[in-house]
Each structure stands twice: as structure tokens, then as C-alpha cells.
Specification:
Layout: H1 17-28, H2 50-71, H3 82-95, H4 100-107, H5 113-125, H6 129-137, H7 139-142
Helix pairs in contact: 3-4, 3-5
């Protein structure tokens, strides 16, 4: 389940097997290690305020990631917010071929413009659309070569 601003935003989402393993392992190292406990609870085991979660966990995670990136000679992560993570999740789903309705169901946006905006950017980042279309329709097998070919003379 996902913490949300409104009850309408509470939904079940698919989580990758690797992320499930990482979060399960993390929870086993906390005071609230039971399978049905929250992964990032308050000290009393209750649902935390989203701002506290962001400040307590996201900021630390970015700091650790930036330390590793620096060691490997990479640029640090400049600005990470829950919204930027949400956009990254949408981009990754779309880049792996998930369809827009599925991504929208995972994100639960009130307005599909965000998902469609991310979708448009992912699609625009693909470079060889022509070859993909040809492969999809088998055009290389039937399309006449050149612009002067008489369609009536092309073998079927």
C-alpha cells in the first residue's frame, strides 16, 4: 500500500521482486520486523507523516548514493523528491513497454497529463522509429524501393 494525500490515492502497486527483497531485509533490521509491519514507521510503529519520511529516509538515501557516485567519479544527484521518484518510476515502466493505462493505475494520478507527458518524452527518446514500424508491419518485404516504382509492377 502507498501513503497518499487522500483516501482516493491509497492503492496497491506492483513492486519488483528485487525491491521487495531489499525492503523486507531492511525491515528485519528494525524494531518493527513483523511481515505486516510498515517498512518506514514512526518509532511507535505507526504510519509516519510524509514529510518526516522524506526527511528521515530520502535525504539519507540521496546522501549515501551521492557518496558512492562521487567515489565512482560520477556527478551527484542534485535534487530528489518524491515527485521526481514518481516520474522516474513512470519513465521506467513506459521504457520497458508498459502501456499507459497500466502506468496510470500504478501512479494513480488525478490528471493523466503527467503520465502522458512522461510517455511522450519516453517515446521521443527512441531513435529508430522507422525501422521499428517496418519491422512491425513487415514493410521491407513488400515496399517498393525508390520513389519512381509503379505500384502495379511490384510483385505481390
Amino acid at each position: 500500500m502507498v501513503s497518499a494525500k487522500t483516501d482516493a490515492g491509497v492503492r496497491e502497486v506492483d513492486v519488483s521482486p528485487t525491491l521487495t527483497d531489499v525492503l523486507t531485509e531492511y525491515r528485519t533490521r528494525t524494531r518493527h520486523a513483523a511481515p505486516d509491519n510498515l517498512v518506514f514507521p514512526t518509532s511507535a510503529g505507526k504510519r509516519d507523516n510524509p514529510s518526516n519520511t522524506r526527511n528521515r529516509f530520502l535525504a539519507d538515501a540521496v546522501e549515501i548514493a551521492n557518496g558512492k557516485l562521487d567515489q565512482e567519479g560520477h556527478e551527484p544527484i542534485a535534487h530528489v523528491t518524491p515527485h521526481s521518484l514518481r516520474r522516474t518510476f513512470a519513465s521506467l515502466l513506459l521504457a520497458t513497454g508498459a502501456d499507459v493505462p497500466y502506468v496510470m493505475a500504478q501512479l494513480g494520478p488525478e490528471d493523466p497529463k503527467m503520465t502522458l507527458g512522461v510517455y511522450a518524452k519516453v517515446i521521443a527518446s527512441k531513435t529508430d522509429h522507422g525501422a521499428a514500424v517496418d519491422g512491425l508491419v513487415g514493410a521491407s518485404e513488400w515496399a517498393p524501393m525508390g520513389t519512381n516504382a509503379d505500384p502495379m509492377e511490384v510483385d505481390a
